[in-house]
Amino acid sequence: MKQKILAQGAEALIIQNKNTILKKRVKKSYRLPYLDEKIRKLRTRSESKLLEKSSKLIPTPKILGVSEKDKEITLEFIKGKKLSEYLNDLKNKVKIANQIGKNIAKLHDNNIIHGDLTTSNMIYVDANNHFINNQIKLKNNNFPFLVYFIDFGLGFTSSKAEDKAVDLHLIKQALEAKHFQHHEALFNSILQGYKTSKNSKEVLNRLKKVELRGRYKAQD
User: Fold this and answer.
1) Which member of 116, 163, 167, 220 is catalytic?
2) For the chain, which terminus, N or C, has the lower number of CB atoms within 10 Å?
3) What class does CATH assign to 4-76?
4) To 10 degrees, what angle do helices 200-219 and 183-194 make?
């Protein structure tokens, strides 16, 4: 199998090569060369650390290699479905949303902010997939599926309720845009899952304020 470009975003090029994914941060001509070098190097380091920490908490692609020099992260390829493309048609969508909420809670309890929580940055793997049957992680999973979180490129660490509330607001907006027919039921299920967080009350109260700010901006 030849290398295949899966995505080309503003920050990085995503390349599949057999069972691996290469995330390569691209140069930005509008930045001073030394500054661009520094930014890409720091973001590569930051993302790899967040992924490493997150992998101990929730399903994420395994890191196979990191090169700060080349601004690259090599990851395992998850043989699943991009959740944004399939969630609307899945019968167990509400259970999936609940699991997403629990995953977010685990990240936030460890002060990990994903920064780009959308269903496009989640991979769904079900029990009929050969890949999932080989995963040790399934032993502690209550449902016959896993939801992998990917792309921590905009992530950071923070203990602030504000940052955690904004993370939740992002997934709510993503559901409204991509899964509008079911967005209320899905987000309510995410919130139920999120209540497993030790700080859920504080964060959910802050979320209400974040949403109010969003409404005021929309009216301006």
Assistant:
1) 116
2) C
3) alpha beta
4) 150
